[in-house]
Every structure is written in C-alpha cells, then in structure tokens.
Design goal:
The protein is α+β, with helices and mostly antiparallel strands and about 110 residues long. The chain folds into 2 domains: about 35 residues, no CATH class; about 50 residues, OB fold (Dihydrolipoamide Acetyltransferase, E2P). About 30% of the residues lie in helices and about 30% in strands. The chain is built from 2 helices and 6 strands, in the order H-H-E-E-E-E-E-E. The protein has a 6-stranded mixed sheet, with no helix packed on it. Strand 2 and strand 3 form a beta hairpin. Helix 1 runs antiparallel to helix 2. The longest helix is centred in the first third of the chain and has 19 residues. The N and C termini lie far apart (about 55 Å). The N terminus is likely disordered. This is TRAM domain-containing protein. It comes from Methanimicrococcus stummii. InterPro entries: NA-bd_OB-fold, TRAM_dom.
Length: about 110
C-alpha cells in the first residue's frame, strides 16, 4: 500500500465517522458495522474443534481467575471446574461457545 493509499483510507474513515456523529443513538451501531467490515476475520466461519456431549482426554494447563481449570483442544479453550493445573482428566463438553467451551470431569 502506498502512502497516498493510506492517506485516502484515513480520509474515508474520517468521513464515515463524521457522518455517523449526527446520527444520535445510531452512531455506535453504524461505526461498529463499519469497523467489523474492515477488520473481519477471514476464518469467521471456522467451527469449534469440540462438540457438546462428546468426551475428550485433556491436560489442565492453568487455572482461571474464578478457579476453573483451563484445558485446550487444538488451541481452543475449555473451562473445567474442580481441577488443578497439571491434572490429566477426561472431560465431557457441556456447552460450546464461539471462543471457548465448558466441560465437566467424567469419573
């Protein structure tokens, strides 16, 4: 990208923000839509590598602020209550969200 292209980009962004400024309550919504279209992740449609109801053998790598163990499957975070760092457990996934999941220890 050339310097001129970068300057043009900044002007377009400024114009969009200026137009939105007079929109009152719609201001944030319009800005958010504009921002999302600019910085959209190309891997947005990638699904979680775990499925609700399935079991996985994992190692608890760390403990979260609220005390749940943190495990990972292909880099995807799974929160597991009542575990400690270093523990290897079999877990059953109870809830899957876009960025993380919750699971319980299978006994």
């Amino acid at each position: 990208m050339t310097v001129n292209g970068l300057v043009s980009f900044k002007l377009v962004l400024f114009q969009k923000l200026t137009l939105c400024k007079s929109a009152g309550k719609k201001k944030l919504k319009v800005i958010k839509m504009f921002k999302n279209s600019m910085f959209k992740n190309s891997n947005e449609n990638v699904t979680a590598p775990v499925s609700e109801g399935k079991t996985y053998d994992v190692k608890i790598e760390d403990v979260a602020q609220k005390g749940d163990g943190i495990a990972r499957v292909e880099g995807y975070v799974i929160f597991v209550p009542d575990t400690v760092a270093g523990e290897e457990v079999t877990v059953k996934v109870t809830r899957v969200l876009p960025k993380y999941a919750f699971a319980t220890v299978v006994e």
